[in-house]
């Protein structure tokens, strides 16, 4: 189990997340504690619903559209088909519903072999950042003027000036430095106060950082080491959902971490967040 990509669907009051390696899309409806799993013959880094009941997914076959009812898969774009070791990893939508997703070498972890892309509302793809090693967490500020991004091996959170209508990013700078002792930064989300909650692979926790000062403000310890991503959800968007992984753990580590790969929910995290942005393509 390599859990990733938690997405709170505010319209249907459900949480979506994926098991990357298995190709499973998980749906959980907290109102009645209903959990469904749908398998697809893909490696899935993230899935986001559109208004037609379909999913747009970042996968090992590029960015694809999935019909969850028929399981039909349509490739929208595959910019790295010439790089067989590469697959898409994390993906999110910006404030206008454009899909941002980045790649990585999932076989040899070749440095600087990936990129971050944006699929716009007309279905046109553009490259936003090149020479990425392991594309991961993304977030946008509430005023829609700043884009935050994680390339995991840098152990940094980078900020960019963001132009909402064109989707252009500029003025790259480091706003958070994460010590090796904290773990490797993976997925992230942003709360209503503009603070960043970062999942820490190998760090046994999710931690909150202030991107203005670079200081760590809080942390939530978890009973698993490989913490992968997080998203706010629930009826008032104050519950923090956290995904984790079992992949990569040795036999003894799996015995010590029986909950590895589970989805966790931390209730009433102040000040809460905002609903995940749906896709409009």
TrEMBL record:
Q: What class of enzyme is it?
A: hydrolase
Give the cofactor note text: Binds 1 divalent metal cation per subunit.
One of its GO biological process terms is: L-ascorbic acid biosynthetic process
Q: Which Gene3D superfamilies match?
A: TolB, C-terminal domain
Gene Ontology MF, one: enzyme regulator activity
Where, in this chain's numbering, is a divalent metal cation bound?
4, 136, 186
Membrane-crossing ranges are none
Q: Where does substrate bind?
A: 87, 89
Matches recorded under InterPro entries: 6-blade_b-propeller_TolB-like, Regucalcin, SGL, SMP-30
SMP-30/Gluconolactonase/LRE-like region domain residues are: 2-246
CC terms in the record's Gene Ontology section? cytoplasm
* The EC number(s) this enzyme carries: 3.1.1.17
Q: Which UniProt keywords apply?
A: Calcium, Cytoplasm, Hydrolase, Metal-binding, Zinc
Active-site positions on this chain: 186
**Family as reported in the entry's similarity comment:** Belongs to the SMP-30/CGR1 family.
| Name of this chain's protein | Regucalcin
Q: Which organism is it from?
A: Parapedobacter indicus
């Amino acid at each position: 189990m390599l859990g990733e990509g938690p997405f709170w669907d505010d319209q249907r009051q459900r949480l979506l997340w994926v098991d990357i390696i298995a190709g499973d899309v998980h749906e959980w409806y907290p109102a009645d504690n209903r959990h469904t799993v749908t398998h697809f013959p893909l490696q899935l880094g993230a899935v986001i619903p559109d208004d037609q009941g379909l999913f747009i997914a970042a996968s090992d076959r590029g960015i694809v559209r999935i019909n969850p009812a028929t399981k039909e898969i349509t490739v929208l774009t595959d910019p790295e088909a010439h790089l067989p070791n590469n697959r898409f990893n994390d993906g999110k939508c910006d404030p206008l519903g454009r899909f941002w997703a980045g790649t990585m070498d999932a076989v040899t972890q070749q440095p600087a072999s990936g990129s971050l892309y944006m699929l716009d509302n007309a279905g046109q793809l553009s490259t936003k950042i090149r020479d990425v090693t392991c594309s991961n967490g993304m977030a946008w500020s509430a005023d829609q003027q700043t884009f935050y991004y994680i390339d995991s091996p840098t152990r940094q959170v980078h900020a960019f000036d963001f132009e909402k209508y064109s989707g252009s990013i500029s003025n790259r700078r480091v706003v958070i430095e994460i010590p090796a002792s904290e773990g490797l930064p993976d997925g992230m989300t942003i709360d209503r106060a503009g603070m960043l909650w970062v999942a820490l692979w190998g760090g046994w926790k999710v931690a909150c950082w202030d991107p203005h000062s670079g200081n760590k403000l809080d942390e939530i310890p978890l009973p698993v080491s490989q913490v992968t991503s997080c998203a706010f959800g629930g009826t008032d968007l104050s519950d923090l959902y956290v995904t984790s992984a079992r992949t990569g753990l040795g036999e003894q580590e799996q015995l010590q971490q029986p909950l590895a790969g589970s989805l966790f929910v931390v209730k009433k995290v102040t000040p809460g967040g905002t609903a995940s942005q749906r896709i409009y393509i």
